[in-house]
Amino acid sequence: MPTSEQTPQQDETGAGAKYRFRNTRAGQGEIFDSSGELVWRYAPPPSGLNFLNGPLRGPDLILSAPDRRERLRIQRERTFPLSRFTITGRHSPLGSIESMSIISTYYAAQFANGSSWVFQIPTFTADFSGHSDDGAVVRVHIANELVWYALIDEGHDSPELIASLALMHSERCRW
Q: Domains in the chain, please, with CATH?
């Protein structure tokens, strides 16, 4: 896999959509495609009041186009006993993401299009994967805590799936 400063290149791992997720400790990030072009941004809503959410609640996560127009929003429904989030686009529900473990290393995602994904992120590893109910795979390489590379099987790339990965990355960087 490439270093954190390189863009993903074609390699022998197979065809599919390739992305680089670059995050900050402030929960803001950018997503680049395989050519290095910025395709998404993600950040909490612009507000000086985000601190009112407290350390455990966290603000919403907004995914926007490069021109900063909001496309998707991920809202936290609950924190305890396990975190649960909803993905909305233009005020209509597109899916949900649920942490399946207290230490946020296991996530399940259900999307309105009928697909479901399970992700297991081992605590001390540089690679993890997610698997869909129809056999598709997302492979993620963690270059460092702030930079992730993702390879999504051909034909399974969707904004909801990318939003899910952005949320997992943002949540992991918060701690």
A: 16-174 (2.40.160.200)
